[in-house]
Structure formats: C-alpha cells, structure tokens
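Dear support,

We are seeing what looks like truncated structure output for some complexes. This example has two components. We would appreciate it if you could run it in full and send us the complete token output so we can diff it against ours.
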Amino acid sequence: MPEPPPESAGTALADELETTGLVADAVTVEIAGVTAGVQPRRKKGLGVGSWLAIAWLAGLVLAAIVAPILPIPGPNETFTDIQNNQAPFATVNTPVGCNGSACTGSIVPFTEGHPLGGDKNGHDLLSRAIYGARDSLIVGFGAIAFGILAGGLLGLIGGYYRGKIDTVIVGFLDIMLAIPALVLALSLTAVLRGRVDDLWILVIALGIISVPILGRITRANTLVWAEREFVTAARAQGAKNWRIMTREVLPNVLPAMFSIALLGVAVVIAAEAALRLLGVGLSITDPTWGGIINDGRDALTQGQTAHVVFVGSAFIFFTILSLNYLADVVRARFDVREAAI
Amino acid sequence: MSLLRRRQRDTAETTAERFPAEPLEGPLLEVTNVKTHFDSPRGVVHAVDDVSFSLDRGRTLGIVGESGSGKTVLSRSVMGLLPKKHVIREGSITFEGREIGNLGASEMRHIWGSQMAMIFQDPMTSLNPVMKVGNQVTESLLYHLDISRTYADELAEALFTSVGIPEPKRRLDEYPHQLSGGLRQRVMIAIALACGPKLLFADEPTTALDVTVQAQILDLLQEQQRERFMAMILVTHDLGVVAGRTDDIAVMYAGKIVEKAPTSVLFRNMKMPYTEALVQSIPKLADKSHTRLHVIGGRPPPLINPPVGCRFAPRCPYAQEKCVKEEPPLRESDVPGHTFACWFPVGTPEGRDALERNRAAGVTAAVVSDGAAAAVSTTATEVG
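Here is the complete output from our reference environment:
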C-alpha cells in the first residue's frame, strides 16, 4: 500500500470537517483563504486579438494626430495619374478607358505611391482615410458622448424617480423618435448652420439624434436596477437620491449603455456620410470615412470599381470591431456579476 | 479593539453634535395604531392593520408570522422605506419621543443608517454587485460621520473584524460575488452597524442562508446587540429563530398582532390558538422518524376585505360562532406584558370547552356558519 503524500493530510482534515457539516463558516473560510493565499491568482494574458485591436486603434489615432508629418500626400492633393487611370474591375457595360471630364476611374490599390489607390477625384485614398479619421472619430465619439450624457441623464432621472417626471421624459424621447432621424438631422444642421463650426454642427445634430435611443436604454435598465434590494439597502443607510443614482444604479446600467453606444459610433460615422450626400454635411475638402464611401458610391453603382467604398467601409469596420472586441475583453476581465456561484 | 472603542466614541460625539440629546427615559420606539394599506387596482390591501407596540433601549423584539402576515411591511413602515404612492398610512411612530411617521425622505436620511438600520433578507441581492464591499461600508460612514477617507477605511476594517470576517483587509477589496452567503450577510451586518444605530431591524436575516450559517449569524447579531446596547427587531417566520434570542415576541397574523408576550411566557403559556399552532408546527428532534408534522390547514385570509370576526377563525380548531361575528380585542392576560386577541384562549376553561365542542361536532363553527373557509382557501393575497 503506497504512502499518501504528506501534503494531503491538511486537505483530508478539511474534507473531514466539511463532511461532518459541523465546521464553522469562519473556519472553512479561513482554510479557503489560506489555500487561496498560497496559490497565486491566475492571470490571463490579453491575447492576440486584443493586441491587434489595441494596435489598430492606437495606430489610427496616432496617425490621425501626426498626419501632416507622415510621408503621405495631402488629402486634397490631386494626382493626374489616378484621374487618368482606368477602373480595374471594369464590367462589360462600362467603357474601357477614360476620356477627359467623363472620367470616373480610380486606380487599383497597391500601386506605386498610392498603397490604397485613389478615388475619382484623383485623391490618394490612404491619405484621405488617415486625415478622415480625425473628423470621423470626432463626429462618431463626440455625438455619442453627447447622447450618453444627455440621454443617460434623462433616462436615469426618469427611470429612478418614475411618476410625472418619467412621463414627461418618455414623452419627449418618443416625440424625438417619431421624427425621422435624417429629417431631424437636416433641420438641426439647417438651424445651426453658420453659428458654429461645421464639424460641431454635425456633433450636436447627430448627438441629439442619439439622445432618445440612449435615453430609452438607460431608462429601461434603470427601472430594473432601481427596484433591486441593494438600492433599498442603500436608502436605509441614508444615501441621497443623487448618490444612489450615480453610485448604485449607474455602474450597473453602464454596460448596457456602452454596448449600444459602441454600435452607435458606427451608425453616426455612416450617418455623417448620408448628410454629406444630402448636401448639408462637411464639404469635399474635409475628408471623412463616410465621405470616402460617398465619393466611391457612383463607381460602385455603375459597376466600375468597389475599392473606394471598400476602403472607407474597412476603416469603419475595423475601428468598430476593435472597439467592440476590446469592450468584451474588458468586461470579461473585470466581470463583476452577482450570480457567480 | 482599541480602534473600535475609538470609533464608538467618535460616533457618540458626532451624533451628539448633530442630534440634540434626547431624554434617555421612555421607550426608544413607540408604534401606536399603525395602519399601512396599499391602494391596489383590486382594492385596498390591509397589509398592516392597527398595530401597536413599544420597544425599550437595548431590548429585542421578535416579530413572527407566516408569509403575507405583514411583518416585513410593518418593519418597512416603521423605517419609512415604503413608497409614498398608493400607500395609505395611519397611526403614529415615535422614535426617542419624536414623531417620525410623517417625516419626508430628506429628514429620515439623518435617521436612516445613523439611528436605525436594517439588515435585509437576502445578502445575495442586497449588496451592490459592482461595488467593492469595503466601499459599501465606508459610504455610509463618510456620509454620516465627519471623518477622513483613510480613517473610514480603518473603521471598515475594524468593523469587518468585529463581525468575524477573516482577513478583513483583503475582503474590503473584494466584490460581493467573491464572498460566500454567510460572509455577505456579515458584510451586510457590518454596513448596518457602521454608524452605531440605536435600533436595528433584521428582516429575516437568515432565511437565505445555510442552516449551519444561520446559527452563527444569529449569534453574531445577538452578540453585537448586547455589546452596543442596541435595540433590535428580529422579523422571522421561524419561531425557532426567535426562541431564546429575544426579550419579547409579537405574533402577527393577517396584518395584526394577535399575541405579544415575553419570550418565555409565550412559549410556556400561549393564549392564542394561532401561536399554539405555530409552536406545534416546529418539528421536534425527539419525534420518531416519519412522524407527521403538524400543519395549519388553509391559507391566510385575503387582505383585501379581510373577514369580519377573528381573522384566524376559519383555520382555528377553537372557532365558535362568536369568533366569526366579533373581532376579539387585544387584552391583557394575568402575566404582565402579555396581551392576546382571542375569545376562547388556549389553556382556559372556555378554550377547552370550545375545542371539545368542535371535536364533538367534527367541524368548527367558522365552517358551519358560512362558506368563509372555502372562500379563504381559494383566494389569498400575498403581501411580503
């Protein structure tokens, strides 16, 4: 009969104590505490995906900031070789070759001097994408930040206090939702035009549009969390309403708000392009990702080339993917859920 | 431990500054004819109906009753934690001689936590899942006491030690989901005790816990209550929990206190058939295995339109005609401090006669007189 390993004696004792069912809570906890103290806590690395996402976002922001000193052409520089080059993926019904002003061709990616190719106006796409990151990110995050602040506040107040305040807030949000978003954005930009910088017009207009969506999400979640027992417990300890809202309810509601907000960033970046299409957004000299898509739209619908639209979409896609992926990783790492047993 | 003493002194000083000295004579809490009714779409729910009791400093009162008897609503009424809307409140609640029944939330905030605190039933849901437990303790310390952040942290650690949490320093930095049920309830107790309240409500503090942990938590509560000379109201549905741990017991049925007595008197010399039924329903260790447990047949009456007479009559083995027609008032028994509401009390000649008459008839008068019992057993309103 083999000798049991010496270190199992302690565990055997613990097992015995546990099976007898008589062991005090404090004792078991102490045993658990000691063993937990001996073993170092398992640390997980970030993983390739997270590093890729971080690299993409950091690289993008950095490139957008230092764009003027990067070895890329200016966003509004026109290259005749791009303009004169024919569309690479020309279909049957498109005339091959380009004649003068009717030219809508764009050059292929990975050509000398223009790694992502160019658009119909003869602009370098890489340059436009990097410069475009500035306004796109400002509009995307700015508008959503506005939405989170205003909508979050309204939703939190409505969901927490309920009653008349809630009725007024919900009514207000419903009225805003009832107006088609583009019409609302159009009228807002029309009203604000000339008073503030074009970029901030977009931030405010698109921000206002995102208010009812974020407001309703926040309110719905607040309604649920404000009914929870720990809120009553906090009240019974004398916490003020504002403190309960910000310290007890809000941290629980934030995950839901952020998951919607991240998707909202993508929608807002695309909405900027829609406004540009309607002639109220930024001008062609202010590149954005939405603008790139807009510039390549004709070529796509006429079956000439897809890569301009593709480049614009890819920048939006990878940015949002990275953000969502990182948000998931962060949530998984700091997962604080109640039902962990 | 010296830290704890320092803390208590500090609490006393701050409290004295903020609240003018109250006379130490007279009961700490006096509840007179309190009614709490809920205005629901189906009618007015008489959750708490005409309840009176008083509690002295450093004493413990157990409130016992089955689910829906209004014991939780009573404790929340006294704390003033019920919503304002659709709640009809009557009666007076005085705390240290001051009427608090009609105070608004902003005034109650100075009483909540620092003067009276509450421990909730389920430690799984009454801690904020996204806040470190240490912060949840220091939060009320910082709000009620004028102390620094670092001192509050020290106090929290001392509190954790005093409620028997091992490795308090490490636990302060943990989230509720990292703690076991028993530890969470200890954290809840630490939060409730943080500002040294004079009155502690424990609303079924052990219902959600393991049986082995239950006894420890109750012992801890008792120990802290004695150490701090704090009054405590222990709300439970389990007579076994309050036996030997409280000075007095009030038995609630359908929103009313039906019997109230010092603990030993209640167990030895109960007068109300409902109390008797409750005591009989406790399983005894001495019983043989497969002994049939005593149950109380039927369900509590609906609290919308409660029956006219005694509310327990439809389920009572002693019930007579009178019980269905007239509501018995609370009256004094020969033992001081013992009151009960019954026409045919247990252990009296009238009670024995009533029981024998019912046994001979094979049915109680309540069932004979009308279909009340049938109505009672089909409709029941749950009021937590």
